[in-house]
Amino acid sequence: MTGRVERALLLTFDDRHVREWAAVAPLFASYGARVTFFVCEPDRLDRDEVRLLRGLADDGHSIGCHGLRHERAPDFVSAHGPAAYLDREVVPALERLRRLGFPARSFAYPCSARDEETDRLLLTLFERLRGGVPVGRRADPALADELRVPARDLTARRVLPGCSVDSGRGAVAYGDDLGGVEAALRRTAEEGGVVTLYAHCVADAHPDNHVTPARLDGLLSLAAGLSLPCAGFDELP
Ligand SMILES: [Zn+2]
Q1: Could you give the domains of the chain?
Q2: How many angstroms is it from 213 CA to the middle of ligand 1?
């Protein structure tokens, strides 16, 4: 199923919340949605999490890499050098995922921290990278221009900007205004291309960054209403 998507919402989930992700697999299936899970600390997955992750991959979802210890790429490169970044933070994570049977063709930057040097380094190992726009932008309707990647640019664009749709973290709520995200979805539905969003855990409440199932359902419903398919990173051209 790879290589044909030119008009899609790319919904992505980061870190290692495998049980919570697997719990909403029926929600994704009900919309015919495929998404991408960017996994960090793959060496710390227990057997049950590996089994659940395999189930998500078998459902057609993409599994990507999010680093071994969730290091901020530019900081790690500054402190230890580019070779150490790949050798200690990236290659061991990629090899672990591949040994578990996940090709992991894409990488999402922890904390969206990236620069041109880290892009160059990581593109020797991955087909695509996901960066991010500042969370405060997600209410701004002008975000649509920044977030949408036109179909004609998709083959060349290897770094896709993502926008957070998390609901909150611990007791902190991030606010309900997703005006910029919704504008980006509408624009993408009309003009084609892809728009990338990210969240972390899926839960009504969680100490880590999380999106509520209700918000996730709302986003999937909006995309479905716009006839905008929801696809994984491994389906990109
Ligand atoms: Zn992360």
Answers
A1: 7-235 (3.20.20.370)
A2: 19
Q: How far is the CA of 36 from the centre of ligand 1 (A)?
A: 13
- Closest Cα partner for 145 from 99, 213, 195, 189? 195
- Ligand 1 centroid to Cα of residue 130, in Å, is 11
Rounded to an integer, what distance in angstroms lies between the CA atom of residue 51 and that of residue 80? 35
Q: Give me the residues paired with residue 202 across strands.
A: 211
pLDDT tens track for 178-230: 999 999 999 999 999 999 999 999 999 999 999 999 999 999 999 999 999 99
- Give me ligand 1 centre to Cα 191, in Å: 30
For the four alpha carbons of 208, 214, 217 and 219, in that order, the dihedral sign comes to negative
Residue 40 and residue 167: Cα distance in Å, rounded? 21
Give distance in angstroms: CA of 190 to centre of ligand 1.
31
